[in-house]
Design goal:
The chain has 23 helices and 2 strands. It is mainly alpha-helical. The protein has 2 domains: 411 residues, Growth Hormone, Chain: A (Up-down Bundle), CATH 1.20.1250; 82 residues, no CATH class. α6 packs antiparallel against α7. GO terms for molecular function: carbohydrate:proton symporter activity. InterPro entries: MFS_dom (IPR020846), MFS_sugar_transport-like (IPR005828), MFS_Sugar_Transporters (IPR050360), MFS_trans_sf (IPR036259), Sugar/inositol_transpt (IPR003663), Sugar_transporter_CS (IPR005829).
Amino acid sequence: MKLPTIYNVHLVAMIATLGGALFGFDISSMSAIVVTDQYITYFNNPSGIIQGAIGSALAAGSVVGSAVAGPISNKIGRRDAILFACIFWLIGTAVQVACQNYGQLIAGRVLNGFTVGITSSQVPVYLAEIAKPEKRGSLVIIQQLAIEFGILIMYFIGYACASIEGTASFRTAWGIQFIPCLFLIIGLPFLPRSPRWLAKVGRDKEALQTLANIQAGGNIDDPMVIAEWEEIVTVMRAELEAGPGWRKFVKNGMWKRTMAGMTVQAWQQLAGANVIVYYLTYIAQMAGLTGNVAMVTSGIQYAVFIIFTGVMWIFIDKTGRRTLLIWGALGMGFCHFVVGGTMGAHHVDVPGGVGNPPNANIVISVNKGAPANTVILFSYLLIVVYALTLAPVCWIYAAEVWSLGTRATGMSLAALSNWVFNFALGLFTPAAFVNISWKLFIIFGVLCIAAAAWFWVFYPETCGKTLEEIEDMFGPEGAKPWNTKKGESRLAAKIEAVVARKTHEEPDVQMQEQVVTGDEKA
């Protein structure tokens, strides 16, 4: 019996982005727990490179997951690739719950990371391929919101579980990670396949009908459906002529898109916001906040994250991607400089570690009063700027820049870039807190300024363009990035042309021939 299919794109996005919620759950499953007495005692106060290995294990698995996500997605489809990834989440979560030492904990987080590597790269691809051009940003941003809700929910679950005696505190918190995965597994079979993937594998009639179901209530004669289908077919033919293999990622100017897709994800990590997201509990303790006050202060950060990303959900398709990336990087850089400068000028060294029992990762204490308040305030402000700009836009931009033939593997490469730098930062940040303390924030501030310059020079505006139009923007005839503007899509003109054809009662023979040709190829 065939299951009913959901075609409401926002409902589809809410189900698909549970894959993002898995990412968020795993992030805060550690951030709320690493400062608890139960965790510190059971795992023998892990610090420096050991705590870095535990924290970065998720990213290590995600590197592998991202690397294989593209070929898997091209073979079995975007939706089924996400379903396949869920298997490893269930195994990894079971290993974490049963772990007896930090080596087993790392192994479980690596398995969870494999899932996150696939879902973080393929959910944005799936959403970008089913969205209308003018709504693509608001649809893909739901992925970021899902990550943030996952972070918030799991953080306070961990906070609540901290009151449980013994190892049951963190085992209970980690066991709850089964729940969103089970919901995702149940929901995925009800989602449609990507119409662009269907066209790519030669299932043209199914692709056209799915496109019509998503965009026009099933009407394949709708002018928008016809115009968008013609664009898909035209681009698909050009890509078939380009041939298989890795050359297509650099051939005929494609290197520009490969560079943009991969570097935008690298800069998201190098901007340093995830240091705040992962380790605000450490920063709160440096600022003299302890116990429940420190935990609640850190948790409020995650609520702020959601609120401001929610604000951007409303405006994301009304504001250019370039604008948000450039000004976001500059704003984050300013916040890093203030946090680092304040820590550097107003701190006391505590070589044995702050807290009771002492946390070996926190070796400075910021002076109470205005200095400590400034550190907390600008840490919050940095998250606000990040939530409005780089957090959602980097994922959206990375999902937009690829062509149909390279999108799955290309987004896999982009996510791979993200996770390589995420792994490096996660591994070395605890050691950096110990060895260079406040200077870490100065380094991130400089990197943010460099990111803003990079965005201005290399990234054309993609907001409001069809995925097929973006291909031209990166071509040899494309305008310089700083001369590009949002909107101005040629799809509107194509729709008018289709309406004119239909008005003159000209049968849409060309579209029928394209479908037949595609079926014959299949």
